[in-house]
From TrEMBL:
Keywords: FAD, Flavoprotein, Magnesium, Metal-binding, Transferase. Mg(2+) binds at G143, D255. The lineage of its organism: Bacteria, Pseudomonadati, Planctomycetota, Planctomycetia, Gemmatales. It is an enzyme of class 2 (transferase). This is FAD:protein FMN transferase.
Length: 311
């Protein structure tokens, strides 16, 4: 999935902790073999390969892959396409753009966009099959798979080893179980959008948080800064400095919602969050000309804020 996972857990026996951590990492590795778009042998890429040149019959997929694709389709509809895992052809163009420092050619962008659209994926929950209705489509689960993997690792630790006091972090995606023994919550810092901007701290328990933005992943072409987050509807990397943090009961939701909230206009994004049970959002907008940061938060966000001066 193109990132590093970290696990923090509490156990009374060191050997149990070792076995549990290894099992959780094995589960994450197994999910990487299913959902990575960096590996040609992954189940996801083999699914895309089945429709590389023609629209063949539906393909039966694993429980994990079908679960993630179903969740992705649901959010795509709710966000009116602001979140869309069919952006794979566009992702490839922008990976090349970051290497060459050149924008995708208009004809390349048009050809890639013709293969993008969540309505081009057909899911059959009865047969658990997937069909891509345009040849050459490519799915990219980078905006949802990490959160799902963190959820699954936490679930394994809790259900198979009885270790509920744990945290799983996958770069900007963190899933929290019960807090450490002497604490009432896990303390998580949101990276500030600018060095001069004060950080925010969260108290989380049995919740997940995800932060997305262009703080570290971006490309500057022709004096314009383009984020690695793409708008599936235009095919372009986002411009304008925006950092989005979403809290939700599950990692799969927090992970994917950050991408939708990053793409949507602020008012529409806040409506999406308000309609999601247990979700909260914090948006920081940086004016690069003045250095000023505008902060916007959904009403539920305040309940997760922690005091900044606490150790």
């Amino acid at each position: 999935m193109g990132t590093t996972f970290r696990i923090i857990l509490y156990a009374t026996e060191e050997e149990v902790a070792r076995r549990a951590a290894q099992a959780a990492f094995n589960r994450i590795a197994a999910l990487d073999e299913i959902m990575s778009d960096y590996k040609s042998t992954s189940e996801l890429m083999r699914l895309c390969q089945a429709f590389a040149t023609e629209v063949g019959p539906p393909v039966r997929v694993s429980d994990d892959l079908f679960t993630v694709l179903t969740a992705a389709e649901r959010l795509s509809r709710r966000s009116e396409g602001a979140f869309d895992v069919t952006v794979g052809p566009l992702s490839l163009l922008w990976r090349h753009a970051r290497r060459t420092q050149e924008l995708p050619a208009p004809q390349e962008l048009a050809a890639a966009r013709a293969k993008v659209g969540y309505d081009k994926v057909r899911l059959d929950p009865v047969r658990q099959t997937v069909q891509l209705t345009v040849p050459g489509m490519r799915l990219d689960l980078g905006g949802i798979a990490k959160g799902y993997a963190a959820d699954q690792a936490l679930q394994l630790l809790r259900e198979e080893y009885g270790l509920s006091r744990a945290l799983v972090a996958a770069w900007g995606d963190i899933a929290c179980g019960d807090p450490p023994p002497t604490e009432t919550a896990w303390r998580v810092q949101i990276a500030p959008i600018a060095a001069a901007h004060k950080p925010r701290f969260l108290n989380l328990s049995q919740a997940a948080v995800s932060t997305s933005g262009d703080l570290e992943q971006f490309v500057v072409i022709g004096g314009v800064r383009y984020s690695h987050v793409l708008d599936p509807r235009t095919g372009m990397g986002l411009t304008g400095r925006r950092s989005v943090t979403v809290i939700a009961p599950r990692g799969i939701d927090a992970d994917s919602l950050t991408k939708a909230v990053s793409v949507l206009p602020v008012e529409q994004a806040l409506r999406l969050i308000a309609e999601t049970p247990g979700a909260a959002a914090y948006i920081a907008l940086l004016d690069e000309a003045t250095g000023e940061v505008r902060e916007i938060a959904s009403p539920r966000f305040a309940q997760f804020l922690a005091e900044p001066d606490k150790k």
